[in-house]
Structures are given as C-alpha cells and as structure tokens.
Predict the structure.
Amino acid sequence: MKRLMRLFIYRPPDATGFWRARANDPGWFSVMWANPAYNELAHADQWSAIERNLPAHRDAVLDLGCGTGRLSGRLAELFNRYVGVDLDTMVAEARRRNPALGAEFVSASAQEYDYPADSFDMVLSMACLASACRADEFPPVAQRIMSATRAGGKIVLIDPFHRFPALVRTCRLSAKEVIGVFTSLGATLDEWSAIHFIPSRLIFARRQLARFQRLTRAGYRVGESICRLAPRRLGDYQVIALTKK
Ligand SMILES: C[S@@+](CC[C@H](N)C(=O)[O-])C[C@H]1O[C@@H](n2cnc3c(N)ncnc32)[C@H](O)[C@@H]1O
C-alpha cells in the first residue's frame, strides 16, 4: 500500500546522499542505469541531442553535474575550456577517470557553485538539475546559469522534468515550467523534444534485464520509435535547448 501511495504522493528524496554514494560504482553504472545494453543506446541518443545543440562559438563549456566524467573528454575536445561541477565524491572519481582534465573539475553543488559571469558558450545539465534542485531552488539556479552564459551561448538541459509524482526525481516542475523560467530571464527556446520512452525506461534499464541484451536493444529501439510520435508526453528525459540573447 505504501509503495502504491508513493506513486501518487511526492516526497523529495535525499538526492545528495544517493549520488555521493554512487560515485564508486564501476563504469557508467555510477551515473546511468544497471543494464549496460540500455546505457549504450541511451548514451548515443543523449550525445546526439547535445551535438545538434552545440553553439557555433566554442570557447568554454560548463558541465553541471558532470558525474564521473562520462561526457567530459568528448566535450573537452569540442571546446577550448571544459569545467565540470559536481558533488565531492563524483568530482574525485571524475578526476581519477580523466587525469588530463583533473584541474577542471570543481567540487560544488549546482546551488552553491560560484558561477563566473559571462564565461560559458554552453551550459549543459545532462541529468543533473532534475535531481539536484527542489522546485523552489530552480529559479535562482537558472538565474545564475543565465548570468554565467555569454550572449549567444546555449543552455542545454537533458533532464527528467516531470510533475507526476511517480516520475519526479527531485525537481517537481514540468518541462513547460522550466522553459518558462528561462524565457522569463531572456532566453529563447531552440528545441523542446524528449528521449527515453517512459515504459521502456522503466522496464529495460533494470538490472533484471541486463542478461537479455538483444531484448533490451529491441525494447529500447521500439520504445524510441513510439516516443517520436509524441516525445514531450512520452519521453522521460526532456531535451530543452535555449539561447541567451
Ligand atoms: C544521472 S547523474 C548524471 C551525471 C553526468 N551528467 C552524466 O550524464 O554522466 C546525475 C549527477 O548529478 C549530480 N548531482 C546531484 N545533485 C547535485 C547537486 N546538488 N549539485 C551538483 N550535482 C548534483 C550527481 O552527483 C550525479 O553526478
């Protein structure tokens, strides 16, 4: 009964404790799900959402919630300067896994990071802000992200923003509300789509399915084809790309 109630009643989780404890999980398990076949396909779709929203001018990128550095090397190749911000245990592991970028990882929460003004051509939240902030913390963080973004720079959020309690991580805001916060601060919307069909995400990302790689791949692909019919409603991860005017 309690489990059923949890689907309908939202209680903010202890996101910081949860993520700090996961930093030492091997490979992508530290930042993704427990089924490697699902992770590989999800990673490719997440990266293609980033790639199609890269800014024309690529001096500096801020990777908010960089985790153990899954995307750091690739982003660092595309920009002159890479900065990754995350909780202490994640940053320690990111440094260990990306020794060449060690100095560019900053241990801070998204709420408390000292955002330098007018410094980044792209600010990325790849599955960070929906876990990191409560809804009331989101507008001030968005304000700081906007001030850290250079004019003409991109803000790219690939995050599970939802209002329905069973899907909410920490931030109980819809994608539309998140977009509203940024546009009210002067950003323009370039893309709003979504990836990771919700039922496939709930079924195939699970550890129990890890033994069934072909089934996982088929389930993922069929799911994404369905998701493309109405992505904003059917996708778990909302892809929101904005430009600071
Ligand atoms: C799903 S993982 C994604 C990591 C990385 N962006 C990636 O895609 O591989 C979510 C990340 O958000 C980080 N996170 C959670 N709460 C945070 C907070 N308050 N401030 C900064 N990062 C936070 C976690 O530590 C974790 O690394």
About this structure: The chain has a mean pLDDT of 96. The beta strands are 60-64, 81-86, 105-107, 120-126, 149-159, 187-197, 235-244.
